[in-house]
Amino acid sequence: MNITSEVLEAACLLSARHTEAEKVCNPAALEIASTRYRGGIGLQELLLEAAWANGYTGRTFRDTREVLRAAFVGGLTPGVVRAEGGPSNIDIGGILSNLANKFLLEGFNSVEQVWRQHRRGRPVTDFKAVTRFRLIGKDQFERRGPRRRA
After folding, report:
1. Distances 137 to 95, 134, 140, 145 between C-alpha atoms, Å
2. What is the mean pLDDT of residues 97-118?
3. Is residue 72 within a helix (H) or strand (E), and if so which, with residue range?
4. Nearest 5°: phi and psi at 65?
5. CA angle in degrees (0–180, nearest 5) for 41-46-49
6. How confident is the model at residue 74 (pLDDT cuts 50, 70, 90)?
7. What distance in Å separates the CA atoms of residue 50 and residue 3, rounded to the nearest whole number?
């Protein structure tokens, strides 16, 4: 079973119960992720998978520096060549970045956007500064925008 960045990303989304994992992931990657990582995938296992794809031969997370070097840099030490010969297609930085963006977007979209009903946009004729006033209490107004000089 070939483990790719898409599969690892899908496994993380499933583990964290992302509500739209089916919409944002490749169906084949979701199938492999759900089969291989039934109990979910944690951060250490994610890093180990990336390290293994990049030539790390250890089976545990005990040597943290070597695991992280292999996972992020893509190789153990200078001069060490992967057994399979070619470079890995797993980019752990890209996976973590994609996951963060997907969860931020999910969080943004899950909040009510009532403010859109209460805002009022006004057209302007040019790009000059415009001053508006906002009601903040009974007969109290607050100046919004730049102040005019006398």
Report:
1. 48, 9, 5, 18
2. 84
3. none
4. -60, -45
5. 115
6. low
7. 9
